[in-house]
Every structure is written in C-alpha cells, then in structure tokens.
Amino acid sequence: MSKIMVIGIAGGTGSGKTTITKRLIERFGGDVSVIHHDNYYKAHHDMPYEERALLNYDHPDSFDTDMLIEHLKLLKEGKSIQCPVYDYSIHDRTDQTVTIRPTRVIIVEGILIYENRELCDQMDIKIFVDADADVRILRRIVRDVRDRGRSLESVISQYLSTVKPMHEAFVEPSKRRADVIVPEGGHNLVALDMVIQRVRAHLESEE
Fold this sequence. Notes:
This protein is an alpha/beta fold.
C-alpha cells in the first residue's frame, strides 16, 4: 500500500480547526479520512449524568489517547478501525462505532493532540490553528448551545472553570510541537493554500 500521510490539526476550542478540516475534505474527497480526538473521550457508563457533567473534559487524562495511537498505527498498516462515537449531550461514549478505512491522507483533529509525544510521532505535518481567546469563546458558545444542547450558563461556567485554565496549561504549550501555526484558521487562505499544495504533492507522488 502507498504511504499514508497523517496531518494533525490542533488548536484551542473554537479556533477554526473544523473549518480547515472541511476545506481539505472538500478539496480531496475520498482521499481523506478524519479522526476526531473527541471521539476518544473515556467512557463513564457507571457514572450518573450529573457527575459526568462535572468532569474536566479539557485535561489530557480525559482521553483514551492510547487507543487513538493504536488505531492510527493500524490505519497506517492498511487496516480499517472501529472508531468510538461520543455523544456530547449525555457526556458519554455511546455503544456505537464508525468504521474508518485507510485513505492516503488521514487528518487527526483535536485540542490536545500535540500534548502527547507518541501521538505527535505518528504525524507527518502538525498544524496549529491560532485565534484570539474572545473569538474562540464566542464560537464555542454558539456551537454548544446550537449543536450540543447546552445552556448558555453551563457553557460559560465550563469555559471559566476548566476550558480556559486547561488551554493555558496544556493546549498553548503544545503549540511548540507544531510545524505550522495558522492564525485565523480556515479564513487564512494563504496558509490553507500552502497545506492544500502539500497534500496535493503527496497524492501526486504516490500515484
């Protein structure tokens, strides 16, 4: 099987990671598959909803990153994986999985993917999407209220109690491991074009 390129796309909550990911999918279609670190949140089936809601979901320990690393290695060997599915509305992993097949480009997306050195070592390109904190919190409020069934009060409370301090403790320092820092996320057309050219060169060299 031809070499698989693994691209990491990290950045704080609401920084624009998803926008860049969507642009790459739109451009390269079936040659790209995406793994979201969020789907690898640890399961807490034994814990009542009220307790799950209070957990710190922005700390590296809240993820089963070892499973993600193992899945990434399997994909690079040309094997399909069963990716877990996380449900934000219940703060828990579901019993469902989604089959992800190996493609020529794999995007790994998440806020804390550069915090883990072993995970970083699996990546060929590490992109960090940067955005001002006030822009990020506004985007997060809109997303969580509209798409994830959260109340405004709960989003703000979570942001102040865990998201902001964890960003400063883990996400921001992990930026040092990035190869490329992209200000303004998917709206930075110059940076986006550079990434597209790099992916295209990989795909053409493997044909």
